[in-house]
Fold this protein.
Amino acid sequence: MPRSLRWQKHKEFAVPFMTNEGEEEMIQIAILGYGTVGSGVAEVFRTNQELIDRRAGVPVRVKYVLDLRDFPGDPVEEVLTHDFQDILQDPEVKVVAEVMGGLKPAYDFTKQCLESGKSVCTSNTELVAAHGPELMRIAQEHHVNYLYEASCGGGIPIIRALNEALTADEIDEISGILNGTTNYILTEMTENGADFEAVLKEAQELGYAERNPEADIEGHDAQRKIAILSSIAFGKTVHYEDVHTEGITKITPVDIAYAKKLKMQIRLLASGYRSEGKYYAIVAPFLVEKKHPLYSVNGVFNAIFVKGNMLGDAMFYGSGAGKLPTASAVAADVIEAVKSEGKTLYSGWGEGKIGLSSLDTLNRRFFVRIPADRAEAAKEVFGEQIRLFDVEEAPDEKGFLTEVLTEKEFEEKASALGDVISRLRVNM
Amino acid sequence: MPRSLRWQKHKEFAVPFMTNEGEEEMIQIAILGYGTVGSGVAEVFRTNQELIDRRAGVPVRVKYVLDLRDFPGDPVEEVLTHDFQDILQDPEVKVVAEVMGGLKPAYDFTKQCLESGKSVCTSNTELVAAHGPELMRIAQEHHVNYLYEASCGGGIPIIRALNEALTADEIDEISGILNGTTNYILTEMTENGADFEAVLKEAQELGYAERNPEADIEGHDAQRKIAILSSIAFGKTVHYEDVHTEGITKITPVDIAYAKKLKMQIRLLASGYRSEGKYYAIVAPFLVEKKHPLYSVNGVFNAIFVKGNMLGDAMFYGSGAGKLPTASAVAADVIEAVKSEGKTLYSGWGEGKIGLSSLDTLNRRFFVRIPADRAEAAKEVFGEQIRLFDVEEAPDEKGFLTEVLTEKEFEEKASALGDVISRLRVNM
């Protein structure tokens, strides 16, 4: 019994389709990595096999799963290999799901698969942000696809929306809540009044945050994701290291109290903007106004707001992470790769690089905290019209919203005033 | 000067691309109808011509606009025709945007275009709901496409999401706020406390509601849209006439007051559900809980909530109507049709029909209004645990939420109690 048929014992519908010629036609795939996402991908193919076959137009079967570990008793044993060469050398494998994460060995494995004429579908944000254009070029040279829907926003089909649906629009803004861990922390801080460290610890215990949470809480994960999304939206590579990035570690319960009084939410936003031929990108905690669609995105959910010059405002919302939502996106990419065999799909992420402009000229309002005794000075610097207020949690200080200012104007005024306890940008 | 080049005078980038062979390659399109959406489609192609050409991979030019009227001084004059045969007989026209609305003559025109090997892209909800499967079959027989992204949710790319992105998921629920007019009316009633008739009149003055608003306020537009979306999500035709439909004309300021006290929003929801192999669909005003993603969809915006068996919850939000958002969706379909020339794209809407099951067995909570003196009787019928409350606006009555009940159980209890002033379903 061939390997692919043994695997089917564990599935609901085990009858391979027959082509008109009476011959069995089937697409074999491989999964690199049997961690959270990898086991999810196997589960999606097991659970939804019949409809996946129908939508792909041909039966799709998992022939190999690559992992260094053994999984005694798991159905994956039937298709498990420890040797990448088994997959690379097998001409029957047409599509590979790379869900290992990290740059090594994922980069080499991906490149070799593409060069062997296998499409690769991935959830690996780090790899796409670092080597996306090169891997897409290799895919194109070999008439296959490098697809990465799951790399941004987990189960939210934002990359396909940008590449295939919003094609008649010039995108002016793409702003997202792209990291579930930080959104969970900020939501918990808002709902329970707890401080950052306590909520982080709880999130780690619940498995919502990594033991080493830096990539999330310092904004590096969101930075990579907005670089990827901006590259597609704006047509050339936005390098993630160019994106100004601030994390959420300095957010305190006092900030949250002020936000509540303003009827706003503090959210880690990752944004790319296009304005008068210039491009900007930033990751930072923002105060989000109640009327903005991103205001009500809570917990581990993600959402991406898009402004098109014809479409106006749109938003895409869903599970930004998690085993099955991410696996669903990888599996949808596998189906897409199967359907487009022999043809590289259009990607909005074209050749070349976008140099980001300094944030100095970007306009917005700012929220500022100062010592209570600097209220008069604040009015002198920021104008008589500012309305100072306070919260119970910090009786010795005052807060206020500025008028719309450029970042540069704000910084100048803030240093003229001195004594600024903290400031947050406002998303309008 | 050929017609297509004269039209380009009005555009930003007038240089046709050259193919490798040095020959000019170009796709000609026609727009049927120069009303709100039609003029929007022309505007999208004029404004975003360069990027549309890049994304389509070939220059796309508007060769004809069909309308019975004349438009003196409008750039459309250069390409205007009153005779459909000009378009039908012109082999250069590869894609037609049908944005006339209505069944006649749109149905005949669409059929003839498809039979002549022209793809058709439409915003015509009525036609897609009535003849979608037939027109898609004709398109397939002629290796062209019948695309209708703009028919549901205006600029929201929900149809492409269902057909191309959520392909690894069995869809368990699709629920939308699919009609901008009714959502505007309910939002205004909520925010300003005005009554239905007054807000409708205002909406008509602002152009948000038709002079003959029945299709919107009685739910018929949403009924057609949810039939289309359910057909794609569930794989076979859900006939719109089978969808149980209630409009919003009976909603009063008292209902709104109760909703506020419950911290819920009243919204016209259009829903399709799949459960244990059975299918259900309903259009009706619902109370939407605050934690539900559809809760904060206000004004003329639309949103569609999707629950997949792997993906979990997702939501797509944007402008559900309006000239440019709808035109953006039609134009994106035109680009898709150009890119897929010679190949009919996959549609989840397969052959056959889905017989909808009776709503009797569907479970949910209900909100009930009764005369104040029936409070004790209500507890006897619906259980001691119900919590009766009232609102200032209606001192002589009480309201309460039931436990989770099937529709049938609810109806039985409601007639046992008698005297029910009104009831609303709760979306959980």
